[in-house]
Design brief:
The protein is built from two helices and four strands.
């Protein structure tokens, strides 16, 4: 019986290290793509629920958590798979977190965002109206595919940020927008 020499063992380890360095980025990319797909599915479910709510009440809900449990039987679609805190954030006008739903909400509700009202995307409470761009007006968005933390004082897009925000439109479609573009310059032409 012949044993491996030290050099043969080192060669095998080097080959394994090279294979791992090639495969790990692919696996991480596939995992990120799966989370993004899950998030897109969640946003589409929220879009259908918001549309049903609007048909019943002729207005959009006051907040995303209003959709559970009657329009979203399960509150899990309100949480992005990329959100490390699973929606358990202190609430603001844009991201309600655990303010109204103990299981948490990860997605921003754009009609309640002071900046969106200031820019004329939505009318102030109690009736948000149809939105500036009708079916293409942002209704909800997910920042968790580029952001790693929630900042309650966040007011505009960060010019140092890089990545995409997933946007749920009032019409129910999910689109992408670059995060480094200033919010004031947004139009539906920016969708990808």
């Amino acid at each position: 019986m012949k044993a491996f020499t030290l050099i043969e063992t080192l060669v095998v380890l080097a080959i394994l290290a090279i294979v791992a360095s090639i495969l790990l980025p692919v696996l991480w990319s596939a995992r990120a793509m799966a989370r993004r797909t899950g998030c897109t599915s969640n946003l589409r479910q929220i879009g259908v629920a918001a549309r049903l709510y609007r048909e019943d009440y002729e207005a959009y809900p006051l907040r995303l958590s209003s959709l559970a449990p009657h329009y979203l039987g399960d509150p899990r679609p309100l949480v992005c798979p990329n959100d490390a805190l699973q929606g358990r954030h202190a609430g603001t006008d844009r991201l309600e977190g655990i303010s109204f739903l103990s299981s948490g909400v990860s997605y921003d509700y754009v009609p309640r965002w002071t900046r969106a009202i200031e820019l004329g995307w939505w009318m102030p409470l109690p009736d948000f109206g149809p939105g500036k761009w009708d079916e293409l007006t942002p209704l909800a968005d997910c920042q968790w595919h580029w952001a790693t933390a929630f900042h309650a004082s966040w007011w505009d897009n960060d010019s140092n940020a890089r990545g995409w925000t997933l946007i749920l439109t009032a019409g129910g479609s999910v689109r992408k927008v670059r995060v480094e573009d200033p919010v004031a310059h947004f139009t539906p032409d920016a969708y990808r």
